Structures are given as structure tokens and as C-alpha cells.
Amino acid sequence: MSHDGFRIGPHAIAPRLVLAPMAGVTDKPFRILCKRMGAGLCVSEMTTSDPRFWNTAKSRHRMDHEGEPEPVSVQIAGTEPEVMAEAARHNVEHGARIIDINMGCPAKKVCNAWAGSALMREPERVARILAAVVAAVEVPVTLKIRTGWASDQRNALQIARIAEDCGIAALAVHGRTRDQQYTGVAEYDTIAEVKAALSIPVFANGDIDSPEKAAYVLAHTGADALLVGRAAQGRPWIFREIAHYLATGTRLAPPSLAEVRDVLLSHLRHLHAFYGEASGVRIARKHLGWYARDRPEHTLEQRALFRATVNRADTAHDQLRITADYFDALVAGEPPRLTAAA
Ligand SMILES: Cc1cc2nc3c(=O)[nH]c(=O)nc-3n(C[C@H](O)[C@H](O)[C@H](O)COP(=O)(O)O)c2cc1C
């Protein structure tokens, strides 16, 4: 294995950059895009382990992996070992080649059912869930955790050892406790401690938003790979930028405005095709906001006006036209051209 990659079971993955699972964001169009932009692996959005919800449009979209680059990693969440085992089997039948278990999510919906990071308070249940899922499927099973439930209950190391004992193939650690939600800053000392104690691959996660930060977190933690979440929103090329910096120690030039425009327009078309026009246009809005946020060439007011205008578009045609006009103006170095949706 080259120094810039790592393994999860039989899968060789390079570069050592993973798109972190984000519900409502890391759908198939976004995963394919991030792969193309240099991510080594993209983890899908969390799918429920409750079979009653597997036939909803949302679950069907989340379980659709047609045309997705291998290996497909699918995240599951839940609290009952046998239900989780069944969910893992079901996802493998639908194309998953890696199963990722979510014990890192602070979301209420998950925590009320004592899934997500709340499970870290029950190490014995964690062991039963992990053992059941590992036994249920042939494919490698990975786990994602936080550093603990609260700053005075930082038991990542205990959970990490349980994970390794249960046959987990790789462990991702987000450097926050559950009670921090997404506030404060991620700390990397606990991740370094976990990495030093384990022999399975450990991935560091939290607040990695630049090539320099990525290099720092890798060096500080000794981690085998990095998970990047929010920094990839509207900036999928961050993966190639980080990979280039890790390989050469120099910064890759940012994408040209013409490339940003083309990436965005193709992303929109893919969303429209994947979800159908009405849902695709709605889901595309948050991505549009993220891409526009990072364009300092236009003033704050101009960007806000673009968002307001494009958010009123409710057909794929109008959404694409308004976006293309706005980005064409950026490319031409002109003030934005904004004509409202018909
Ligand atoms: C909108 C959103 C949705 C998320 N959904 C999930 C999820 O479904 N499963 C999970 O394990 N983590 C989820 N996370 C947490 C991320 O995977 C990641 O751990 C966290 O955002 C910290 O990484 P970052 O600082 O690079 O964003 C989510 C985060 C965000 C912002």
C-alpha cells in the first residue's frame, strides 16, 4: 500500500480522504461529485435500521447505488443488535460493500431512540450491536463515534477498544463530545490517544477546512485518514486540494470560475435527474447557497440577491438559467445578471 492510501478490509483506498456522512447532503449526486474531485471514499447518508421505513421515497433514494464508484459505504443507525444486523444484511444486498455504524450523531431524532452518540453511554450495548453486525455480513464494518457523551464522560478509548475487539475494520472519531453538538472547536488529542492504542485504521474528523489544517490534524493524531464534512459543502474540490498539499507540500491553484460554474451546473442537472424535477430543484437550493457563499467576486448584497432570485425558481430550466447567468457574469468579471424566474 502506498504511503498516501489505506485499507478497509479488502478495499485499498487512496487518497486518505473520506467524505463524512451528512444526512440531507451526501446523497448519491454529491458522493459521485466528491469522488470525482479527489475523495478516496464517500460514506452515504445514514439509513434507518427500521424496515418499516425502507419503502419510503427517502429510503429508496438513500439505498440507490447504481453507477456509484466502488466501494460503496452505507451508514446505518439504531439501537437493537438484531435489527441493526438485519439492516446491514439488507444494505449489503442493495450494493453496500462497507457498512458504517453511526454512533457519532447528536441529532435528537436519533438520540431520543438512544441511537447515534447516545449509545456511547452504554458500552455493553455497543459491544452487542457491533458483534451482531460484524457477524451478520461478509463485508467490513466501520464505526463512527464522538470523543464521548460529555467532556467529563470522554470514553472514546473504551469504545474504540470494544470496537477493535468486536472486529470493526476502521474507526472514525469526531473530535467533539455529544453535548457540544457542532459548537466549540474539535480537539485532536483524544483522537491521537485512540490512534496510539489501536491497530485498526483510525480516521480523524472535525473542523478540517483547509489543506494546512488537514496536514496538521494528520501529523497531530497519526490518523490513517481524514473525514471532511461541512468544508466540502459548495467546495467539493477541497479533496483534490488537500490531496495535492499532502503529496507535495504546496497549494494547488483554486478552480477557475468557469470550472466552478461547470461543476455546479452539472451537480444541479444530476440532482434534477436523481430526485425528479420538483424535489431536485428544492434539494439543489441549499447546494446553490453554499457555492454562492464562497464567491467573494460579488458583494454580500449581490450574493443575497442571487440566492433570493434563484430560490424562487421552481423549474429545473429556470434554476439552471439563473445560475448560469449569475456565474457567466462572474466569469466575465461583470456585475451579476439576475432576471427573476418567469
Ligand atoms: C448536516 C449534517 C448532517 C450530518 N449527518 C450525519 C450522519 O447522518 N451520520 C453521521 O455519522 N454524522 C453526521 N454528521 C456529522 C459529520 O459526519 C461530521 O462528523 C461532522 O460534521 C464534523 O465534521 P466536519 O467538521 O468536517 O463537518 C452530520 C453533520 C452535518 C453538518
UniProtKB/TrEMBL annotation:
<comment type="function">
    <text>Catalyzes the synthesis of 5,6-dihydrouridine (D), a modified base found in the D-loop of most tRNAs, via the reduction of the C5-C6 double bond in target uridines.</text>
</comment>
<keyword id="KW-0547">Nucleotide-binding</keyword>
<dbReference type="InterPro" id="IPR035587">
    <property type="entry name" value="DUS-like_FMN-bd"/>
</dbReference>
<comment type="similarity">
    <text>Belongs to the Dus family. DusB subfamily.</text>
</comment>
<feature type="binding site">
    <location>
        <position position="144"/>
    </location>
    <ligand>
        <name>FMN</name>
    </ligand>
</feature>
<dbReference type="InterPro" id="IPR013785">
    <property type="entry name" value="Aldolase_TIM"/>
</dbReference>
<dbReference type="InterPro" id="IPR032887">
    <property type="entry name" value="DusB"/>
</dbReference>
<keyword id="KW-0285">Flavoprotein</keyword>
<feature type="binding site">
    <location>
        <begin position="21"/>
        <end position="23"/>
    </location>
    <ligand>
        <name>FMN</name>
    </ligand>
</feature>
<comment type="similarity">
    <text>Belongs to the dus family.</text>
</comment>
<dbReference type="InterPro" id="IPR018517">
    <property type="entry name" value="tRNA_hU_synthase_CS"/>
</dbReference>
<keyword id="KW-0819">tRNA processing</keyword>
<keyword id="KW-0560">Oxidoreductase</keyword>
<keyword id="KW-0694">RNA-binding</keyword>
<feature type="binding site">
    <location>
        <begin position="229"/>
        <end position="230"/>
    </location>
    <ligand>
        <name>FMN</name>
    </ligand>
</feature>
<dbReference type="InterPro" id="IPR001269">
    <property type="entry name" value="DUS_fam"/>
</dbReference>
<keyword id="KW-0521">NADP</keyword>
<dbReference type="GO" id="GO:0000049">
    <property type="term" value="F:tRNA binding"/>
</dbReference>
<keyword id="KW-0288">FMN</keyword>
<dbReference type="GO" id="GO:0010181">
    <property type="term" value="F:FMN binding"/>
</dbReference>
<feature type="domain" description="DUS-like FMN-binding">
    <location>
        <begin position="19"/>
        <end position="321"/>
    </location>
</feature>
<feature type="binding site">
    <location>
        <position position="75"/>
    </location>
    <ligand>
        <name>FMN</name>
    </ligand>
</feature>
<dbReference type="GO" id="GO:0050660">
    <property type="term" value="F:flavin adenine dinucleotide binding"/>
</dbReference>
<feature type="binding site">
    <location>
        <position position="174"/>
    </location>
    <ligand>
        <name>FMN</name>
    </ligand>
</feature>
<dbReference type="InterPro" id="IPR004652">
    <property type="entry name" value="DusB-like"/>
</dbReference>
<feature type="binding site">
    <location>
        <begin position="205"/>
        <end position="207"/>
    </location>
    <ligand>
        <name>FMN</name>
    </ligand>
</feature>
<dbReference type="InterPro" id="IPR024036">
    <property type="entry name" value="tRNA-dHydroUridine_Synthase_C"/>
</dbReference>
<protein>
    <recommendedName>
        <fullName>tRNA-dihydrouridine synthase B</fullName>
        <ecNumber>1.3.1.-</ecNumber>
    </recommendedName>
</protein>
<dbReference type="GO" id="GO:0017150">
    <property type="term" value="F:tRNA dihydrouridine synthase activity"/>
</dbReference>
<feature type="active site" description="Proton donor">
    <location>
        <position position="105"/>
    </location>
</feature>
<dbReference type="Pfam" id="PF01207">
    <property type="entry name" value="Dus"/>
</dbReference>
<keyword id="KW-0820">tRNA-binding</keyword>
